Amino acid sequence: MDGGGRGSGAAPGHYGIRTTDYKLIHYYGAGLGVPGASEREFEAEWELYDLRNDPTEIRNVADDPAYADIRAELERKLAEYQRHYRDEPYAGSDTPHPEWGPHDAGTLKRVEKYAQALRASS
């Protein structure tokens, strides 16, 4: 991977939660070796979309005070799911990386081929 950022076919590492009305994404800034993710470090950022009023996700309302309660509730739910599924939130370079076993080799090759095609087309 070339370690490109957003728009280069290699997204920064992220996790999120979606409801019928909203989508919250946290780009935590590191790919952790996940296939298709960037190998570069980025500044963390949040995106929140109001899917009823903005179904094409054009307007990021993560920092809009009118959505502060919604964002806080979605962050709480996201943390709850992460605890439930033992998905440790990113807390810096010492955060454990996912383990990709040998059973994933074919999938990893397909993901890398797809990521290369995306980079080549941008």
Give the SSE map.
Layout: E1 14-18, E2 22-27, E3 45-50, H1 68-84, H2 105-121
Antiparallel strand pairs: 1-2, 2-3
**Strands in their spatial order, largest beta sheet:** 1-2-3
* Spans where pLDDT lies below 50 across 5 or more residues: 1-8
- Strands, count: 3
In CATH, the architecture is 2-Layer Sandwich
Distance between the termini: 14 Å
Largest sheet report? 3 strands, antiparallel
What top-tier CATH class fits best?
Alpha Beta
Looking at CATH, which topology would you report?
Arylsulfatase, C-terminal domain
Please give the domain count.
Answer: 1
**Proportion of β residues?**
5-15%
What is the mean predicted local confidence, pLDDT?
82
Describe the structure.
- The chain has 122 residues and is of the alpha+beta class.
- It has one domain: 2-Layer Sandwich (Arylsulfatase, C-terminal domain).
- Helices cover 28% and strands 14% of the residues.
- The longest helix is centred in the middle third of the chain and has 17 residues.
- The relative contact order is 0.20.
- The N terminus is likely disordered.
